[in-house]
Design a protein that fits this description.
This protein has about 325 residues and is α/β, with parallel strands linked by helices. Helix content is about 35%, strand content about 25%. The structure holds 1,4-dihydronicotinamide adenine dinucleotide and 3,4-dihydro-2H-pyrrolium-5-carboxylate. Its EC number is 1.5.1.1, 1.5.1.25. One of its GO terms (molecular function) is thyroid hormone binding.
């Protein structure tokens, strides 16, 4: 009912309502709609970001309206470049689902779970579309929250023979390995971790390149998830220039991605173009999927949480 106060669906409940197979389906659907650039399907501007200079962070506002589907949503997200050793969280978020006709907020949800799960699910979609079918080795660079969700979804939906992980500190790598639901090889250096890898996920808070083209096997697929500011990098120019570059949003990449903007590469396609069949998947080439995170991904995920929550309470 329009007058009811918003329901609050928090961390544990959001986690229990989401699973990767449903999330992947919904996100493929949403990314395909986004790339049609049809305003009745999706209106989603590039995220507005307000610098929190004193705290080395950014406040992001991520609205999205899907008129044909009656979904109106916004995420509020704070993300920080915390100094090493800081115990403060690097991402905090809430997601609000609104009634587009009445204008009220229907639900307020924990946004951290949605953010870690939908980001990992979108990277998995990129790998489904762009990695070679004989891929055997997955490498994850970084050992934070996104590293965990990426490990979970990649090992759930693909069958890699080996998963490797690298952290700047070996000790953190070993601790991280102990938290996972499966085996992983902890590597001492990025070069060792990515040697011969078929799929590489970069989920660091680095602002300088950590992954260099000279180390990457030709034909590998890279899902680059960190470096979400125009002056931040995770990948070097060589890697960007030797790869076919896919993004979640062209406008987002040209505004927010240091790896795209500073290397001067051309974006080849959006992931939604692949889903819609309007651009090809160049699997035989080295491919980079530069992920920045979209409001439409949060909207589709939040609607899924809400639909499942409603079917549980009715
Ligand atoms: N593309 C997207 O949709 C999203 C991207 N992100 C970004 O993904 C990245 C990872 O996020 P979380 O896992 O939540 O962060 P986190 O703080 O949990 O983990 C970050 C990891 O990066 C490592 N790290 C920090 N500085 C580094 C450096 N200079 N070189 C190498 N490693 C370094 C840390 O040790 C840690 O392992 C962040 O940059 C975040 O802003 C977050 C949410 C969505
Ligand atoms: O999509 C998202 O929520 C974010 N992308 C970069 C930091 C947070």
């Amino acid at each position: 009912m329009a007058e009811s106060p918003p329901v609050v669906i928090w961390e544990r409940e959001v986690r229990s309502l989401l699973n990767y197979s449903e999330l992947i389906q919904r996100l493929e659907w949403a990314l395909g709609k986004f790339s049609k650039r049809d305003s009745a399907e999706v209106i989603q501007p590039v995220r507005t970001t307000v610098p929190l200079q004193k705290h080395n962070g950014f406040f992001g506002v991520m609205p999205c309206y899907m008129e044909n589907d009656g979904i109106l949503c916004t995420k509020l997200v704070n993300f920080y470049n915390r100094p090493t050793g800081s115990t403060l969280p690097s991402t905090q978020a809430i997601v609000m689902l609104l009634d587009p006709e009445y204008g009220n907020v229907k639900a307020v949800m924990n946004g951290e779970v949605i953010t870690v799960m939908r980001t990992a699910a979108v990277s998995a979609i990129s790998a489904k579309l762009l990695m070679r079918t004989d891929s055997e080795v997955l490498t994850i660079l970084g050992t934070g929250k996104q590293a965990t969700s990426h490990y979970d979804v990649f090992t759930e939906i693909f069958k890699f023979k080996e998963v490797r992980v690298w952290s700047r500190s070996k000790e953190r790598g070993v601790t991280f390995a102990g938290t996972l639901n499966g085996p992983v090889t902890v590597c001492e250096s990025v070069e060792e971790a990515v040697k011969g890898a078929d799929v590489i996920v970069t989920v660091t808070r680095s602002t300088e390149p950590v992954l260099f083209g000279q180390w990457v096997k030709p034909g590998a697929h890279i899902a680059a998830v960190g470096a979400c500011r125009p002056d931040w990098r995770e990948l070097d120019d060589t890697l960007m220039k030797q790869s076919v570059v896919y993004v979640d949003s062209r406008e987002g990449a040209m505004t927010e991605s240091g790896d795209v903007v500073l290397s001067g590469v051309q974006v080849f396609a959006e992931i939604g173009d692949l889903i819609n069949g309007t651009k090809p998947a160049c699997k035989e080439k080295t491919t980079v999927f530069k992920s920045l995170g979209l409001g439409v991904e949060d909207a589709a995920s939040a609607q899924l949480v809400y639909d499942k929550w409603k079917s549980n309470v009715m």
